[in-house]
């Protein structure tokens, strides 16, 4: 199961963030076919959002045949293989890096500081 995190500063509606996190979770394998998602009510309470927000996300994912709701038993990841297009992945990474560097630079860190720290965090791995 993935841990949902919503960012109110991103400018992306919460329902869209939920959709994206489920799609990315399936694409990277942290959500698998048949896995049960939290109920609309449980996720709304957990994320402190309106029920309609989660409901809208789940409905859109159902329309795309990504999830399936079975009356009385719950909502499950459907039998779908998702691959996130490279352009979408690149755009998401660009947004993350932009936000990250903006915050870090506002605290006085240099890009060199960030690179060194990221390399240390990743154990010196190069990609």
Explain what the structure shows.
Helix 1 (14-28) crosses helix 3 (51-63) and helix 2 packs across helix 3. The protein has two domains: 14-77, Orthogonal Bundle (Arc Repressor Mutant, subunit A), CATH 1.10.10.10; 86-121, no CATH class. It has helices at residues 14-28, 40-47, 51-63, 86-106, 111-121; strands spanning 36-37, 67-70, 74-77. A three-stranded antiparallel beta sheet has the order 1-3-2. 54% of the residues lie in helices and 8% in strands. Strand 2 and strand 3 form a beta hairpin. The model has no long low-confidence stretch (mean pLDDT 92). The chain is mainly alpha-helical and 127 residues long.
Low-confidence stretches: none
How many domain units? 2
Helix content: 40-55%
Percent of sequence in beta strands: 5-15%
Overall mean pLDDT score?
Answer: 92
Please give the order of strands in the largest beta sheet: 1-3-2
* Structural class by helix and strand composition: mainly alpha
Say how many strands there are: 3
What's the architecture of the largest domain in CATH terms?
Orthogonal Bundle
Termini separation comes to 27 Å
Largest sheet: 3 strands, antiparallel
Question: Could you tell me the radius of gyration in angstroms?
Answer: 17 Å
């Amino acid at each position: 199961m993935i841990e949902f995190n919503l960012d109110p500063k991103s400018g992306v509606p919460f329902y869209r963030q939920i959709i994206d996190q489920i799609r990315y979770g399936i694409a990277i394998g942290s959500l698998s076919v048949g896995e049960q998602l939290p109920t609309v009510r449980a996720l709304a309470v957990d994320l402190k959002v309106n029920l309609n927000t989660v409901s809208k996300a789940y409905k859109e994912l159902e329309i795309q045949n990504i999830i399936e709701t079975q009356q009385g038993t719950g909502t499950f990841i459907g039998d779908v293989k998702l691959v996130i297009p490279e352009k979408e992945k690149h755009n998401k990474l660009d947004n993350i890096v932009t936000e990250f560097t903006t915050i870090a630079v506002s605290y006085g860190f240099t890009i060199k500081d960030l690179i060194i720290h990221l390399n240390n965090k990743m154990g010196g791995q190069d990609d």
